[in-house]
Amino acid sequence: MRASIFNWLKKEVFPSWQLYLFLIPATVYIIIFAYVPMAGVQIAFKNFNFNLGIWGSEWIGLDNFRRFFDSYQFTTLIWNTISLSVYSLLISFPLPILFALVLNSFTGQKFKKLVQSVSYMPHFISTVVIVGMLVQLFNPRTGAFGALYTFFSGELLADAFANPGAFQHLYVWSGIWQGIGWSSIIYIAALSSVDEHLHEAAQIDGASRLQRVRHIDFPSILPTATIMLILAVGNIMEVGFEKVFLMQNELNISKSEVISTYVYKVGLTIGSGDFSFATAIGLFNSLINFVLLIMVNYAAKKFSDTSLW
Amino acid sequence: MRLTRGEHLASRLNYLALGFIALLALLPFLHIVAQSFSSHQAITSGRVTLWPVDFSFEAYVKVLSEQAFVNAFKVSLLRTVIGTLLNVVITCMLAYPLSKAYIKGRSAIMFLIVFTMLFNGGMIPTFLVVKATGLLNSFWVYIIPGAVSAFNVIIMRNFFQGVPPELEESAKIDGSSNIGTLIRIVVPLSMPVIATITLFHAVGHWNAFFDTVLYVTDRNLFPLQVYLRELIMFNQSNISNNNGYAANIDSTLLALESLKAAALIASTVPILIVYPFLQKHFVKGIMLGSVKG
Fold it and tell me: Where is the ABC transmembrane type-1 domain (chain B) (predicted)?
């Protein structure tokens, strides 16, 4: 037995020992920074105590979850999270497809490249800068939007960041500004693989441009779109945490407090530090996501041929 | 292709629509650039929209000479260079063996990697681990916890799988070691995907701010993004306004606007400089990596 293991090692592993060595650092890293935290999720069911540590703290079952469901913020948090991400999904899912279709039905190569390059660019700008630019643009007195508003209406623009009702619109539409070009890449690539002869044949048969988009271009990106939709729905509770966090202030908090910002507040801001409670809320969030992902994938499999697994 | 009259019209409309979208993408930049080059009075009186009024470099001079800005810039630069280097090296090291069918246990490791994309421990348990490793309030907290990105490992592995095995075999026959083959054959052939991943990681490092919020309280370790956040959202700045505009509180507050704009631009320019060089690679890199899934 021992000899055979030794032989196996000598024959299979030793010739490429360097490659096995390569695997070690990253694997150790993944275990420490991804799997140890997963084990740490157990504190959601415990009353975490620093002195006793993760493993030593006392089990309290589902108390943390019950406390969250009973808290007066529960409905607001869920509603804010879901409405923000559904709104965002409804806008940011179809628009890049539309953009790709328009761009594709376009013949001027140089201009097309230019538009594409310009539209990707905002993707690489940091969230801090994006929010900073929003603040500047919507400044009632000094911002371009504020100036335009005053020019047309003669009145001073109300401060958009102080208005809870404006929060979701600012969030979603600035997201479109930042992401539409980038999100369209994958569709543009799918469209570029469409056989040019199909278009020519359809044209000879008298199909109009719109008909060709509808019957040739659209079906060719449908599988990609399905996958993107599954992924988007599976992430629905995972709103852009950083951006919400940055856009949040005391005046718009009634609309801008979502589950992930609440987790941060409960868990890590000074004075609270309720680790178990925060972890429970975070876990609840991930679980909903996971269930949604499975459901959407199931539906996609049932109604079309495309699915993640 | 022959175009009908309706199609001519449609393509003109397309030009307009696309030009409009491109313009829309640029306008907010132009506004901020215009503000950064304008005088305080011009901004205060709301005369600056897309073109600088009373052109001056004053705001840039002030921002670039402020110690806190320079220090934050250094932290960001250091973090981007060291962090990206480690990211790319460790991603190559992990992805290369994973692309070889003869490596034992590779599917198990692959599963470990993919699973981290579906589920993670969440903010608090991760915080506890980082705390336990003693990285809190050190520069390395920016580098180490984010060293491996599952998504990029998968892209890279897919690309490596497409490198013709004959090339590697002939290198081996010529006496090249595994490391030699990786460095001399595989890496040069994979430049598009390496450029893509370099860009993603570098931008990620340059733009990151939340790990500072979570793990760092030492102000000397604050990167540019955190500096910007304090400047813009909390109006916190040590830049003095002693140019005669401090006569009343209102104008002092508003004088900040051009400083904010200058800081925004100064911190975004480094990305916009490297962007055109890497841009031609990344679309190709993404597609090559993802096609084979």
Answer: 73-277
